[in-house]
Task: structure prediction
Amino acid sequence: MAVEGGSGVRRIAIRRHAIVSDSLPDFAGFDLGPGSPELQLGVLGSCLAHTVLIQAALQELAIDTIEVEVIATFDSRAGAEGFEDIPVHPQDIAFEVRLQSPADPARIQALQAAVEKTYPILNLLRLPQSVRARFAVAAPLEPDVTRTESFA
Result:
């Protein structure tokens, strides 16, 4: 992944797929794609729907439809002068799964328990993680200077 020129656009390459990430204009972007926190919430929802499908198949439970809604609070003032106490990360993350299924409520509860136990991205967010970070600083690029010499 690299940032394109002065645009701030981030092209995320995963296998043979590309996702464009950007920010809203009030956050130094051009709104050419979702921002990183929005992508994270989208990943949370996508993984949830997929985990429901996997667990329903394992339990041989019929699902007619699945809808997932993920919400969170973002405050664009976070970290700015006078707003240092506002967290810079999404807060109050919540999701709702809406299913249509002919299964009885007890089987749906068993499905929910299995989903919460095996849902990778939810567990990634809920459980403490160790994340290593390193900044590698390269030498500045040489300016592109064309020299013209004149001999008199």
Notes: DSSP finds three helices and five strands in the chain. The mean pLDDT is 88. Residues 36-58 form the longest helix (23 residues). The chain has two domains: 1-34, 35-126.
